[in-house]
Amino acid sequence: MTHSSFQHVVIADDEPLARERIRRLVETIPGYRVSAEAADGHEVLSAVAAHPADIVLLDIRMPGMDGMDAAMQLQSLSNPPAIIFCTAFDHYAITAFEVQAVAYLMKPVRKETLSAALARAGRVNRVQLQALQVREQASPGQLAVKTHRGTELIDMAEVRYCAADQKYVTLHHSRGETITDYTLKELEAAFADTLLRIHRNTLVGVDHIQGLSRTAEGHWQLNLRDQPVALAVSRRHVSRVRQWLQEHLPG
Fold it and tell me: Which residue pairs, CB below 8 angstroms and at least 24 apart, start in 130-137?
């Protein structure tokens, strides 16, 4: 979520004319700005990862990943955007309620109903923002990863560690593992406050660090919360890890 005087809106619809019409409506309502557009569920997830997104205006029937699947992925985030479905089909309403949609608007969307739904979404966002204010100050963001299952949106706060193996990197997170072709260097640069380098092959999520220990053979290793296996710390990086521990986990 953003801290601007206006709310950022992402529009998702596979029909360009429908996106253009909704954009025109949003632009006539004070306090809202369109930050991105998407033509399918995969593009929605990428847009939310790359652009400010307080509210997503989401069509349901789209090719590839549909709007309902995208909404389920978005709701798995620690701080999801508010979702407003805009659809020509009324039989998805119960499912929309299950993914905690703020509103369910029938096409053609009218300015009055859209304005009311956006206002409702804004109220939800403000309540969430108050509840998550401390966490928001250091929000690590999300990463859109293309996998064999489609686009997966990873909440970086939930990534325990990233391990490189040949040309791929595996993200180990609270929901399992995800393989990506992003390099460790790219991830480290993009999420410098979230990931700490402990080895040429390993980055760890700083929120999950428990402490540093030494094996009987004298090798350094990092212990993570809720992670039974300790991770090797190279001699090259041990001083940086110790410095981080002193600054963030004193005593």
Answer: 132/78, 132/79, 135/78, 135/79, 136/1, 136/79
Question: What percent of the chain lies above the pLDDT cut of 70?
Answer: 86
Say how far apart CA 96 and CA 91 lie, in whole Å: 10
**Torsional class of 39: left (φ above 0), alpha (ψ -120 to 50), beta (otherwise):** alpha
The reply to whether 58 falls in a domain is yes
CA distance 42 to 40: 6
DSSP string computed for 195-236: EEEEETTEEEEGGGEEEEEE-TTS-EEEEETT-SS-EE--HH
Q: What is the tens place of the pLDDT at every residue in 73-126?
A: 998 887 789 999 998 876 655 565 556 778 888 889 999 999 999 988 877 665
Q: Which of 73, 105, 136 is the last residue of a domain?
A: 136
What is the count of structural domains for the chain?
2
Each residue's pLDDT tens digit, 178-192 = 998 888 988 888 888
Nearest to 10 by CA among 120, 31, 18, 45: 45
Mean pLDDT of 161-178: 91
